[in-house]
Amino acid sequence: MALGSQRSRLLRLAWPIMISNVTVPLVGATDVFVMGHQPDAALLAGLGLGTAAFSLSLFSFNFLRMGTTGPVSQAAGAGNMAEARAILYRASILAVLIGILLILIRPLIILALHVAAPADPAVEQAAAAYLHIRLLGAPMALIEMVLVGWLWALQDSRSALYIQLATNLVNICLDLWFVLGLNWGVEGAAIASVLAHGCGALLGCLIVWRRLGVDRWIVPTGMFAWERIRGMLLVNRDIFIRTVCVVIGLLMFRLEANRFGAVAAASIEPLYQFLTVTAYALDGISHAVEPMTGDAIGRKNRNALREAAIAALQAGGIMAFVMTTALFIFGPNIISIFTTIPEVVILAEAYYHYAAILPLIAVWCYLFDGMFLGAALASVCRNAMLQTMAVYLICLFTLPRWLGLDGLWLAIIIFMALRGVTLAIKWERLLGSADAKLP
């Protein structure tokens, strides 16, 4: 398959994912918007702390999506649709069990947050109120991850778009209604998210159920075979470790801001939206190349794998450059949309240039993540992330002490850069996976 054809295929898969992905941080941006227009900065800081803890609690289990897409795309590429269905069923059962566990241990999660991230009492109270409600939606959110990952693996990015659009648009509308209209505060933002994930999970189940057709009633051979379950658990273990490191790294960045006071912590939130919005947009390319990588490996086509990777790197690099340029130009104007608290606006504008350059630095780690996860090289992703975390923690606990908030932003830039470098040096291992025998 020619490089030009791979580019066309990549863009065809990427645009629905990009649209759906961009709506994800828009939910967070809406949360920041509604809280940023409240008179108390503690509500905005508490929301940031609560959402960060929720991300650690829930998206640590993002292996349910990542561990589904790669193996399913490889099974589909090899023509084994029975195993593709078996992976869906196994992952769905695991998602429900983890979701129920998160609901049961809500008090422990909130207690751990207070111990690990002491903040002003008003900030802690807002974060606890948010988490207590938001975690009720964990089972639906995790099921949604599995369904989206399965559809991406089969290169049905449009159906995944419908699921994520439904979830995120419902969330945004309810967020505005509950917080600004009914004045429910952080509790309103949490309730909106729970209801939205319920809608998304229901729609996703209907779409996947219809796609399975008559095969939905057939239990795949070996679905409960221990060797296959063990293989899934090992891959998920490695992705779990990798994902926990990512989430903890980003969480610690936000928690460290609390050491500079509530205003500094609040100033991080609008700038953090720069990172999340651009990350989700660039992940459109990353998620598109993931099933393309798995498909090429399933067909044992090294050349197709190489061309898919090059097409993704080219497209992602161009997009990141455009985003960084736009943020440098419009950054201060965007900040004023998120919050009208004067002291928060002034501090955010003083540091926006760090957030603006992040897309150009971080894009490479997003793209390589997609390729290596599509190749099901979860252990490589795990080891690269552990190496990155070792350096990042040193930077995080030294640079802010020397350079203040400048040092905090430099630490997160180093974190993103190293994530890409530690995977890029394994390029030959990625290409060689197309020659390996499938498990």
What does this structure look like?
- The chain contains 17 helices and no strands.
- The longest helix has 37 residues, at 262-298.
- It has one domain.
- It has 439 residues and is mainly α.
- The two termini are 25 Å apart.
- It is 85% helix and 0% strand.
- The radius of gyration is 21 Å and the shape is globular.
> Which of globular, elongated, flat, extended, rod-shaped describes the shape?
globular
Give the ordered list of helices and strands: HHHHHHHHHHHHHHHHH
Give me the Rg, rounded. Answer: 21 Å
Q: How many beta strands in the DSSP annotation?
A: 0
The residue ranges in which pLDDT falls below 50 over 5 or more consecutive positions are: none
Query: How many strands, which pairing sense, and closed or not: the largest β-sheet?
Result: none
The total tally of domains equals: 1
Overall pLDDT confidence: 83
